[in-house]
Every structure is written in C-alpha cells, then in structure tokens.
Design goal:
Shape: flat
Number of helices: 21
Oligomer: single chain
Number of strands: 0
Order of helices and strands: HHHHHHHHHHHHHHHHHHHHH
Helix content: over 70%
Distance between the termini: 81 Å
Length: about 475
C-alpha cells in the first residue's frame, strides 16, 4: 500500500487491483489465446500475426515494468530520473575523453570511482526495499559508469599501455585525435571487466534490461577485439577483411539468442537477435562490396559475370533466403522475426542489382554496337528486370511481405521505362498495350471470385469430356 501511495503521489498508475477483476481478465485472455491457436492452425492468420497478437495479450497481464522503455506511460519523476542518469554518464564520458590539468592521477581515479560506486550501492539499497523503478535507474547508471571508471583507472595507472602491433596509428583514440590517449588494450580490458557486472545484476534483479546492457557491451567488446587485431589497418588497405571477420560475431549473437529463447528466456534473447542481424547485414554487404577473394572466386567460377559487384549482392540475397528458411525450420517466435528481417532485404538486393547490371550491359553495348553478345546481354537484362519485379509482386502474397510488393512495383515501372527507351523506342503500341493490360487486370481482379469459379467449372468439364 505504501508503494502504491508513493506511485499515486508521483502521478503513476497504482498496481493494486481487485483480485476478481484480475482473474476475470485472465480468463478472457486465455480464451482468446486458445482462439488464436485455432486460427493459426486453420491458416486464418499468419505466424507473424499470431506472434504479434500473442505478445499484445501477454502484455495485458504483465505488471508495469520498472524500466522506462517498457513502462506503459511516462511521468515527470521517471523522465527526470533517467535524464539524471544520462547527464551523469555524459559527465563520466568527458573524464574518459579529455584531460584536465587539475584532475590527474589519484584525484581523477577517485572522481571516476566516486561517481560509479554510489550508484551501485543506492540501486541495490532501493531494490531491497522494493523500490524497483528507482533501483533500475541507479543500477543502469552504474553499468554505464563502470567502463568509464575503469578506463580512467587504467589510463592514470599506466596499465595496458602497449599499442596494437606496436603502432600508434592503429589506436582508435589516436586516430580520432582525442586528448586522452586511451589505448585499444585499455578499452578492451575495461569492457571485459565490466561485462560480469551486467550479468550479476541480471541475476540479482531478474530484470531483462541488464541483458540489453550485456548484449550492447558485448557487441562493443567484439569490435574492440577487432581493433586489437588491426581493424584500422584493414579498413585502410583491405576493408573486406574487417567485414569478413564480423561474420563469427554475428553467428555468436545468433546462437546466444536462440539458446536463451530455447531456455524460455525470451525477455533476454530479444536483445541478442538485433545484433546478430545487424552484424550479418553489415558483414555480408561489406564482403560483397570490398572483399577481393569473394570477387575473385566469382570471376573464376563464372567468368561471364566478370566478378561484378551486383552479382555478389544477388548471391547475398540467396544467402539471406537460406537464412530465412533456416529460421523457419527453427520456428520460434523471435527467430521467425529474425527470418523476416533477413527476408526484408532480399528484393532490394536482387532488383537493384539487376537494374544496375542492365545499365552496365547497355553502356558496354553502346561502346561496341556491332558486338552481338553484348546486345543479347543488354536485351536479357531489359526483359528480366520487369519479369523478376512481377515475381516479387506476386510472391508478396504467400510470404505476406509488403516490401516485396512495394519493391516489385517500383522496379516494374523502371523496367517498363527501360523497355520503352530501347526495345519499343518510338512505338506507341507499348503504352497503349500497357493501358489495356492494366485496365483488364483491374477488371479481372474486381471479378476474381466468379472468374475463379468459372475456371474451375471449365476444367471439370474438360476432364469429364476426356474421360
């Protein structure tokens, strides 16, 4: 009651509610969820719709989350509390990035520790008293301040000062010309030491927000590991190597997310999948754009491709398709969303690549107009683009992907224009035919049901007559 009185005075929703009302809404939701299961079995709704509706029903029965991003409504005390967290973190960031003549050595270390340690103590104290909303904010502040405090400590104590490969130009802070020259090793060790804190807080509070902190810190830790391996040198001389080395980290985050979801820790796994998807997108895009061995392999395996970048992106689309199919086989709610994320980029990769390949083929043909093979290549791409665009338009139906439909329409228009410029140049029959075809398609769609019935009857009559 005291906690609810405090929430009421702070302008927040109270948690006390009549037991009968809670039981009643729980029974109604359970009945609706059973209906959802039946609808999915009967294919009335798709898996993604089922997952979305199920999450919303579960949200109705959950208690108000203590973390501001999961709260149902924002209040002045909440916003002020997290604004204080952010200001405190920015102040600690200034200690990490800049040097101050009057704040060096022990005073700098003590200042950084004095900012981090009290937030941990106050957070634990409030959690034990049951003031979870306040406790989460202070403990999050501790998670943000701890790496900064460790960086200041290692810097002032002259720990881990060795440069990457003994080269100062491979140091991130040196490259960014930041006054406090923190080494990659100091950054790596600070993140490594800070990681267990978020794990312990997840165990202590059972609040999934600390899984987000852990996943975010782990992602930065992975990139810092690449820094220590020479990432800056790769980006300058061989960018494809950096993107290729991102792939193992994408796999690690994917496996971690799936493992947590299989252990029925969906609140934790949902924070690992986005990093897996982001690393996969970045890695495959970078490998296709910059990794020379990838292009050399394509050139040797299929010389007619000339190792062109666009073919590599089409291959990437095939990889995304395989990943999508793998996610469908695993068939958990969050993995299905991951598969949808991979599926989302497929039409852009394929249709954009076909459009650019067509432009390049036409340009080569214009430079050598007597070359029949170049003419054939240009013509093939001019016809393939609208055909594949139409395929994506209709493929949007079974996959329930509206972006397939949108991308297909855009590139169908681009393909039609390309055909007008080259194949049907100065021929009015092309736009007239499109007008007739478009109107006929609309009329057929408006009468879809009777046409379908009529076609089925016609097929039955033909089968009967053959017998």
């Amino acid at each position: 009651m005291a906690d609810d009185l405090e929430r009421f005075l702070a302008g927040e929703a109270v948690q006390a509610e009549p037991e009968a009302y809670s039981r009643l809404i729980g029974e109604q939701i359970a009945r609706h969820v059973r209906d959802l299961d039946g609808w999915r079995r009967d294919q009335i709704i798709s898996d993604s719709e089922y997952d979305g509706l199920r999450r919303r029903y579960e949200r109705l029965t959950e208690r108000e989350d203590a973390w501001i991003m999961e709260a149902r409504r924002l209040t002045l005390p909440q916003v002020s509390l997290y604004l204080g967290v952010w200001v405190l973190s920015v102040g600690a960031g200034l200690l990490t990035l800049f040097r101050y003549p009057n704040l060096r050595g022990a005073p700098a270390v003590l200042t950084a520790l004095a900012a981090a340690a009290p937030t941990a103590w106050i957070g634990v104290h409030h959690w034990k008293r049951g003031r979870f909303r306040v406790a989460i904010a202070f403990l999050l502040a501790f998670c943000l301040l701890l790496p900064s405090a460790l960086l200041v400590t290692t810097g002032e104590c002259r720990l881990f000062t060795a440069f990457t490969q003994n080269r100062k130009d491979l140091e991130l802070f040196s490259k960014l010309d930041i006054p406090r020259q923190t080494t990659n090793a100091q950054l790596w060790w600070s993140l490594l030491v800070a990681l267990p804190a978020s794990l312990w807080l997840r165990r202590f509070t059972r609040a999934s927000v600390f899984s987000l902190v852990f996943a975010s810190t782990a992602a930065v830790f992975c990139l810092t590991g690449l820094l220590r391996m020479g990432m800056i040198d790769w980006l300058e001389k061989d960018p494809g190597r950096f993107y290729f080395n991102l792939l193992p980290f994408a796999a690690i985050f994917m496996v971690a997310g799936f493992g947590l979801e299989r252990l029925r820790r969906a609140d934790d796994s949902r924070y690992f999948y986005p990093f897996a998807v982001a690393f996969t997108w970045a890695a495959l895009t970078g490998v296709a754009a910059f990794h020379e061995p990838y292009a050399n392999w394509l050139r040797s395996a299929a010389p007619w491709t000339r190792g062109q970048l666009e073919y590599l992106f089409i291959l990437n689309a095939g990889i995304y398709l395989l990943l999508d199919r793998a996610c469908e086989r695993l068939a958990t709610p969050q993995v299905r969303l991951v598969g949808k994320a991979f599926r989302f980029v497929i039409p852009g990769h394929i249709l954009t690549s076909l459009f650019l390949l067509g432009l390049n083929a036409t340009e080569r043909w214009n430079h050598s107009p007597d070359d029949g093979s170049l003419c054939l290549e240009a013509r093939i791409f001019e016809w393939v683009l609208p055909a594949v665009a139409c395929a994506f338009v209709f493929r949007s139906i079974p996959r329930q992907m509206k972006n397939f439909f949108a991308w297909g329409l855009v590139f169908l228009a681009a393909g039609i224009v390309r055909l007008q410029q080259d194949v049907f140049k100065d021929r009015a029959v092309w736009p007239l035919g499109l007008l007739v075809a478009g109107l006929g398609l609309m009329l057929a769609a408006a009468s879809y049901a009777p046409l379908r019935v009529g076609m089925r009857r016609l097929l039955k009559i033909r089968r009967f007559s053959r017998r």
